[in-house]
């Protein structure tokens, strides 16, 4: 009984001494392990950082950016060809936007007056309005070269969406059992492995070099990219509604349509709108190789060394892309019930106020 009591100097009995010593040794050993682990991690991070720096230098050398003959300085000296400067009163420099606007108007980059004249005239003509909508089919053509670019991205999205929906649904393990679902996943992976610009080159022998081959190439690219997004959404659905339908005796198609796709309908629409934005950008890219639209204007002006006109085309591309994103954002926001609906005019005029509110948060 006396062995468990404390001694007069406040220490425990002789039986508890070895236990305390062992516990102290274990604590010290744990601290040492922590220190060694931290040192190894620090050395690992330093090693990784050193490798990244070494690889970066190698990459700069491979891309000839370390070449003393690189034309970075020449490019800086040539900025006036992209950004024409006008001196007012021979003193104050201003960027001459008039040259940009003039080329945009002459090349019909954003508006085709011949097509638009059928619609915008006074007094209005019912015959010309009918011709605009049903004979000239001018809804996209009224926007000139930008309309061709927009049409390529739109057609690619519309044509590719149903195939992406089928491949994305059947590629999910919740719908098609393994390994049969990998037939559809593998097909989408193969499509994604080939860039849209290469698909355009593939379709040129069939449809020629123009917007038709570009639109079909974008449609193929949509199948691979949008289908993969659909697969990921279906893999994350809740199992409760699916199990509830199984208990009611629903068959497989009913489970897929009403138990699975109903859960991801909003996400599917949002992803489709997002891919539409991407496809319009891709339409600019494939236009560079001669498929038409704003991309073709960029490369043609670059070949003519008309860099001011090239910059005007880039401004038109920016206006097109930002307009598509604005339209897509408004549609996606209306799909979300927690967002306050906002009109286009309010969205544009209220932008400075929203930026200020965000900065003060």
From TrEMBL:
Q: Give positions of region: Disordered.
A: 1-24
Per UniProt, residues of the ABC transmembrane type-1 domain are: 146-328
Q: Which GO terms describe its cellular component?
A: plasma membrane
What is this protein identified as? Phosphonate ABC transporter, permease protein PhnE
Q: Name the family.
A: Belongs to the binding-protein-dependent transport system permease family.
Q: Signal peptide position in this chain?
A: none
**Xref: SUPFAM superfamilies:** MetI-like (SSF161098)
Where is this chain compositionally biased, Polar residues type? 1-14
* Topological type in the membrane: Multi-pass membrane protein
Provenance organism? Halorubrum tibetense
What are the alphabetically sorted keywords of the record? Cell membrane, Membrane, Transmembrane, Transmembrane helix, Transport
Mark the transmembrane ranges. 42-62, 82-101, 129-155, 161-184, 196-220, 255-275, 282-301, 307-327
NCBIfam families in the cross-refs: PhnE
């Amino acid at each position: 009984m006396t062995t468990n009591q404390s001694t007069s100097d406040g220490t425990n009995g002789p039986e508890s001494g070895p236990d305390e010593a062992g516990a102290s040794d274990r604590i010290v050993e744990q601290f040492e392990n922590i220190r060694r682990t931290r040192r190894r991690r620090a050395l690992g991070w330093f090693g990784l950082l050193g490798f990244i720096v070494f690889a970066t230098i190698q990459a700069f050398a491979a891309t000839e950016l370390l070449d003393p003959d690189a034309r970075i300085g020449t490019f800086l000296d040539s900025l006036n060809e992209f950004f024409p400067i006008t001196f007012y009163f021979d003193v104050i420099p201003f960027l001459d936007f008039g040259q940009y606007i003039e080329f945009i108007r002459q090349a019909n980059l954003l508006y085709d007056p011949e097509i638009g004249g059928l619609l915008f005239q006074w007094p209005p003509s019912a015959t010309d309005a009918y011709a605009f909508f049903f004979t000239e089919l001018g809804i996209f053509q009224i926007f000139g070269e930008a309309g061709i670019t927009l049409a390529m991205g739109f057609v690619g999205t519309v044509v590719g969406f149903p195939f992406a929906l089928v491949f994305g649904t059947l590629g999910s393990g919740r719908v098609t059992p393994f390994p049969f679902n990998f037939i559809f996943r593998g097909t989408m992976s193969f499509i994604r492995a080939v860039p849209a610009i290469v698909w355009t080159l593939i379709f040129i022998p069939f449809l020629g070099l123009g917007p038709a081959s570009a639109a079909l190439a974008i449609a193929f690219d949509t199948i691979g990219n949008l289908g993969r997004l659909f697969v990921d959404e279906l893999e994350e659905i809740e199992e409760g509604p699916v199990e509830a339908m199984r208990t009611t005796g629903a068959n497989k198609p009913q489970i897929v349509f009403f138990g699975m796709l109903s859960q991801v309908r909003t996400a599917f629409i949002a992803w489709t709108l997002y891919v539409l934005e991407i496809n319009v950008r891709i339409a600019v890219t494939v236009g560079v190789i001669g498929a038409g639209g704003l991309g073709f204007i960029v490369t043609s002006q670059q070949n003519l060394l008309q860099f001011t006109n090239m910059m005007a085309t880039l401004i038109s591309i920016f206006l097109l892309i930002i307009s598509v994103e604005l339209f897509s954002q408004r549609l996606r926001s209306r799909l979300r019930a927690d967002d306050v609906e906002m009109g286009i005019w309010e969205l544009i005029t209220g932008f400075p106020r929203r930026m200020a509110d965000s900065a003060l948060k």
